[in-house]
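Terminase small subunit, Rhizobium puerariae. Tokens?
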Amino acid sequence: MSEALIETKAAFARRLNVSPGYVSNLVKQGLPVAPDGQVPVDLALAWIRKNIRSGPGRPVGSVEGGGGGGDAADLTAARTRLIIAKAEKAEMALQVQRGELMPRAEASAAIRSTMRYFRDQALLIPARYGADIAAEAEADFPRLAAAMETHLRKALHEIVVSGKSNLAAARELSKLPSILDEEEN
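Tokens:
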């Protein structure tokens, strides 16, 4: 794992697209800072996610428990959602910077390329090994190679169909709470 990223309050404020004064207010409320006043980005982002939505005695800007009503409460709720969204965006940017996340298009292209290579290699099996298999089984090589290719294509087609249904199932499962979510509470 790489070393923890630490930056000045001003740099952290730019990361969240908020004022340095707002970061100073968060520090007064408990945002973690190093002894030299620098902000450990991972800890600070986690603190924001946890404490912006905390229980009774919530920090300024929290949605619930603000006590007010009407336009002021709506404005406070909107500001809170904005800060949380900015923190989440900053976390994702940090994960991309560390190489923990990659753009969806890039990941899809890598998967497509890998699967094409797999398909091509699988379809070469009859040509590469068919003659040896035919010799061992004392079978007619052209018929054996044709049968192998037919069955390989059928198997590859089943993998594609199964993969699509597995992807749909995975998307549905991703909407459910996980065991890990329960362990965090």
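Confidence is low (pLDDT under 50) at residues 58-68, 180-185.
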